[in-house]
Structures are given as C-alpha cells and as structure tokens.
Specification:
The protein is built from twelve helices and 19 strands. The chain has helices spanning about 60-70, 130-135, 135-140, 145-165, 205-215, 250-270, 285-295, 345-350, 380-390, 395-405, 420-430, 460-465; strands at about 25-40, 40-50, 50-55, 75-85, 100-110, 170, 190, 200, 220-225, 240-250, 275, 285, 310, 310-315, 320-325, 330, 360-365, 370-375, 415-420. The longest helix has 23 residues, at about 145-165. It is elongated. It starts with about 25 loop residues before the first strand and ends in a 9-residue tail after the last helix. Bound molecules: aspartyl-adenosine-5'-monophosphate. Aspartyl-adenosine-5'-monophosphate (AMO) binds near residues 206, 236, 334, 370 and 423.
C-alpha cells in the first residue's frame, strides 16, 4: 500500500447523497459494514459518516470482482461506479439509500482490518464495559454512540448561538490554576519551575468568571471542562463539562430566565419528540422539596415510564450553611454566593447562621441536578464573613482568596451566574442510563482510562524535574 498513490477525497460523494445521482458515476469511500454473497454476486454495505450504501460486484468485471472477494468487515475502501435503481423486490425501505445501489467499476483497498475485538453494530449494552472502554475508538463506531456524539455537538452549538445572540462572550479560563477549597478534592499538578508548589485543575471556572465581571465583560459563558477528584458514579465523572455563565447587574430571576428559555428552545428545536411537562418550570423551596419529596432534587414526572417526559423544576432558598460531623459550619453549595437580601444582616453579624438562606438556585430534570448557580457576594466584607463562619483564620482567607477580596475593592458590579452539567443533560435527553454513554472518552469507576492506560507511572527523570519522590506506602 503506497500512500503516494492514494488520491483521497477529491471527487468523493457521501453515501447519503447518491439519492440525487441516479445514473451518474460517483466515487465513495468508507468502511465495509456488511457483506452478503448471493449466488455469484457480492453485495457490500459501505458505511461512511453519512450512512450506508449498497455496493454490487459482478463476476463479469473480473479483476475488481476478485479483489472484492477478499473484502472483510471494517476494511477501508474506495470505489467508483454507477448509481442505479435496485431490481424490483430488492429495495430496503429502512435505508435512506435503499432504493439504489452502486454498480462498482473500480475498487481500491485503502486499509485492511483484523477481526474486531467487539461487535460495533449492536446496541453494545451486552458487552462488558471494560472491553468497550479499552477499544473505545471502536465502541464509538457503534451507531448509538456515534449519534450521541453528533447530537451532543448539535446541542452545544445551539447553546452557543443562543447565548451569543443574547450578547454573551465566550471566554476560555485557565486549566492549570490554584488550589482553593471549593467542595471537592482537587487534582494537583506539581510545578517544575517553583519547587514544592502545585497548581490545581479547576473544579469549575467560578473565581475566574467572577473576576471577568470585575473586568467589565458583563456577560460571559464557556463550555468548560471541570475536574474533581471524586469517586465516579453513573452521573459523576472526574472530568466533566459545564455550560458555565455569569452576568452582571442581574437578580436571580434574570439568570433563571436565560437558562429556562434556553432549555425550552433547545428541546423544542432539537428534541421535538420530548414533552416538557410544565412551562414555566415549577419552583420549589428547599424545604418544600425535602418535606414533600424527601430530596432536594425531586423527580416530578407524572409518568416515569414515558421516556419522552421532561420534568424540569427549580429548587431555591437553600440553607447557606450546615454543620459538619465535628460541629463546624460548612457551606452547602458555593462559598461565593450571597445570602437572600433579607438575611444579609444576619450574615454580616454572624447571627442565626443555621437559618441564613442563600440565593442559590438549582435546576433539576427528572430527579437529576442538572445545574446550579447563585447571586454572588460582590462586596469583600460579606465574603470575608462567609469565610469567618467557615472557621478560616484571616491568614488562610488572605492566602486562598486574597485576590478575590482585592479585586472586589476596585468597583466589582453585582453579579450572578450558573453552570449546567452538560453530560447529565445529554444522558437524559438521549435516554441513556449514565453519562459515560454521552462522553467520547470517559473514565472507569476507579478513575482509569483503559484505552490510554492512564494514570501511569512516569520516568524517574520526570519526577526529579518536578522535585517529587514516590513513597511506596503499599
Ligand atoms: P456545581 O458544583 O453545582 O456548581 O456544578 C454544576 C453542575 O455540574 C454538574 N456536575 C457534574 N457532572 C458530572 N460529573 C461531576 N463530577 C459533576 N459535578 C457537578 C451538575 C451540577 O449541577 N461554580 C458552580 C456554578 C455556579 O455557581 O455558577 C458549580 O460548579 O449537573
């Protein structure tokens, strides 16, 4: 196989487009999806990114026919031939191109394939997940996963368009940054140039997006990768994607309105088979949710067996603080949130701490928390009070949050925002049981990438450069 001889792509037609090209001669490229031999005739289903087309090889075209005889599943080929109607009775109504076939005149084998370790045409649920993850690049050939990735991209594009039209600016924030207490455990990155110091991967862009408000951007969004060193579950991965946004000069209604209208328009436009149970989304206080449903993310679907039912709701008025096991105060959601305006005095005086409600709003879909946000404390005095209640000494507050406190001194506008957990939303919209099915390269329950074999050991030299020593504590 000589690459210099390949003349890829110049004349290429996609399989889906042959329906407009009856009697024309076209060139197609793709994979051998299936082969059937009927008497002397060889039928191949050719797969490309757009779908399938039937190729026909007849013995009279001897040289090509003999080459076709070698073809096996998943070989990569290039053919040219004439598009013709299939003979009566041979049509396939289930296929977009099912009335037509390609009478192949030339065949080139671009690459052979060994027998695949997993079936890529089944639904895939019958295959052990370890094998699927090890061969994820094959697993993703599966039509179900292939279309999950494409639909994911379509929805993300829709969100982008929607927000850009509303004057939001898409801004990337750093991935190697500073470790700060935000609720979950950080992934740490040792610094080569600053011995003994560490970056952390962001649990969310929370602080950067607030600093962008101080910078006067007013409306920010980002399709943001977030990293949290937590145990993995069906709706939780160590690395996941948020649609993150922040707005200046807003009340919580304004942020909720942007998100609610975006979600409704997305479902109506891209998932018309889905039915939103109630518009506007019902709102419950945390207390109502817990009293009536025993959870702060209630599943409000009337008919839980109907896969096309979408029951969104908002949960608001969460307690700001709760007691830990050892009796200290911790925050329930986000330390950067403001209390509801009626409770600002209590926060400033550190009174009735257990009763202070935060401006936090969570958006829930079919029993899953798909997003959350709040109006923030934009004055450093109030932010300091939160950290004091959390029991941080002043030097720790300065070391961890000094940059925020200082930034808020220079004209920080009132602001608030929200982040949606995109993987969770896609899993629900695509009727998938967990978020791994809607991510290209997810990790296993114990945080491994079985395909890349990560995490892995590193060279002694790399460790040395990073001023690290492994202490074997097995
Ligand atoms: P929060 O921590 O609530 O808020 O995260 C927002 C949303 O992200 C999703 N999510 C996850 N999805 C998959 N795997 C995970 N490990 C995971 N953790 C969270 C959830 C959740 O609702 N900075 C704030 C947002 C803000 O206040 O603006 C934040 O990150 O759907």
């Amino acid at each position: 196989l000589e690459f210099k001889d390949l003349d890829i792509g110049i004349m290429r037609t996609l399989t889906k487009d042959i329906i407009n090209k009856e009697n024309e001669t076209v060139e197609l490229m793709g994979w051998v999806a299936a082969r059937r031999d009927h008497g002397k005739i060889i039928f191949i289903d050719l797969r490309d990114r757009s779908g399938l087309a039937q190729l026909v090889f007849v013995p009279s075209n001897k040289e090509v026919y003999e080459l076709a005889n070698k073809l096996r599943s998943e070989w990569v080929i290039k053919v040219s031939g004439k598009i013709a109607k299939r003979p009566k009775g041979m049509e396939n109504a289930e296929l977009e191109t099912g009335l037509l076939e390609v009478q192949v005149e030339n065949l080139e084998i671009l690459n052979e394939a060994e027998n695949l370790p997993i079936d890529v045409y089944s639904d895939g649920r019958e295959i052990g997940e370890d094998v699927r993850m090890k061969y994820r690049y094959l697993d993703l050939r599966r039509p179900r996963l292939n279309s999950n990735l494409k639909n994911r991209a379509k929805i993300i594009n829709f969100f982008r368009d929607f927000l850009v039209k509303k004057d939001f600016v898409e801004i990337e924030t750093p991935i190697i940054s500073k470790s700060t207490p935000e609720g979950a455990r950080d992934y740490l990155v040792p610094s080569r140039l600053q011995p003994g110091k560490f970056y952390a991967l962001p649990q969310s862009p929370q602080q950067y997006k607030q600093l962008l408000m101080v910078a006067g951007l007013e409306r920010y969004f980002q399709i943001a990768k977030c990293f949290r060193d937590e145990d993995t579950r069906g709706d939780r991965q160590p690395e996941f994607t948020q649609l993150d946004l922040e707005m200046s000069f807003v009340k919580r209604e304004d942020v909720m309105e942007v998100i609610e209208s975006m979600l409704i328009e997305t479902v109506k436009t891209l998932c018309p088979e889905k039915k939103i149970q109630q518009i506007p989304f019902p709102r419950l206080s945390y207390k109502e949710a817990v009293d009536n449903y025993g959870t702060d993310r209630p599943d409000l679907r009337k008919d839980k067996n109907n896969p096309d039912e979408l029951a969104f709701c908002w949960v608001v008025d969460f307690p700001f603080f709760e007691k830990t096991e050892n009796g200290d105060w911790t925050f329930t959601h986000n330390p950067f949130s403001a209390p509801i305006p009626e409770h600002l005095d209590d926060l400033m005086n550190k009174k009735n701490i257990g009763n202070i409600l935060t401006t936090q709003y969570d958006v829930v879909l079919n029993g899953f928390e798909i997003g959350g946000g709040s109006i923030r404390n934009h004055q450093s005095g109030a932010l300091v009070k939160v950290f004091e209640i959390l029991g941080y000494p002043m030097d720790k507050i300065q070391a961890n949050f000094g940059h925020m406190l200082e930034a808020f001194k220079y004209g920080a506008p009132p602001h608030g925002g929200i982040a949606l957990g995109l993987d969770r939303i896609f899993a629900i919209l695509f009727n998938e049981p967990n978020i791994r099915e809607v991510m290209a390269f997810p990790k296993t329950g114990d945080g491994r990438d079985l395909m890349m074999e990560a995490p892995s050991e590193v060279d002694e030299k790399q460790l040395k450069e990073l001023h690290l020593k492994i202490i074997d504590n097995k």
